[in-house]
Amino acid sequence: MILSDRDIKKALASGRIVITPVIDPKTQMGSCSVDLRLGKQFRIFNHSKFAYIDPNNPKLATDMMAEVKLKNGEPFILQPGDFVLATTMEKVTLPDDLVGRLEGRSSLGRLGIVVHSTASIFDPGWSGMVVMELGNLGRMPVALYPGMRICSMTFEELSSPAQVPYTKKKAAKYIGQKTPLASKISQER
């Protein structure tokens, strides 16, 4: 069952769902979702230096990707066909019986912007900055500004609390992330 705006407000008020900084319900609350705002940190590929991506390369984060931090008011220009990792301004903490699902916003989708390629689910017990997999499917560059509403998160109730929430998984690679971390797929051997 997806939580309604009424249930999301109750969950936020009781601390069942924690979002920091605190959201503005007038601008960030939808009928069944919470809009999250674009942060200032991005991780981009240095694609001109490498012929291909090797998922077995544990140095993927340091060698192949660079972190970009924007200043206040500075836009990030997402080029056509580009793919970058970015954070939201908000940190989200979920209980063991809720799943968060990241969704794009229609207004940005109409400009060709997608906010996730595959990773739309935030497991029960998740706590950390929301990292998006931003892409520009359009033919023109699009300016994205820190603080703009970039995505929405919906919340779905599990039939019972997860037996092994994300924070207790031995293989959880992104616990408590504060920046857009590069893929850690090489750790899955």
Could you characterize what this model shows?
It is built from 4 helices and 11 strands. The protein is mainly beta and 189 residues long. Strands 1, 2, 3, 5, 6, 7, 8, 9 and 11 form a 9-stranded antiparallel beta sheet that branches. The protein is globular, with a radius of gyration of 17 Å.
For the CA atoms, what is the radius of gyration? 17 Å
CATH architectural label? Distorted Sandwich
* Biggest beta sheet attributes: 9 strands, antiparallel
In whole angstroms, the N-to-C terminal distance is 35 Å
Quote the average pLDDT: 89
Primary descriptors:
189 residues, mainly beta, 4 helices, 12% helix
Can I get a quick summary?
With 189 residues, the chain is mainly β.
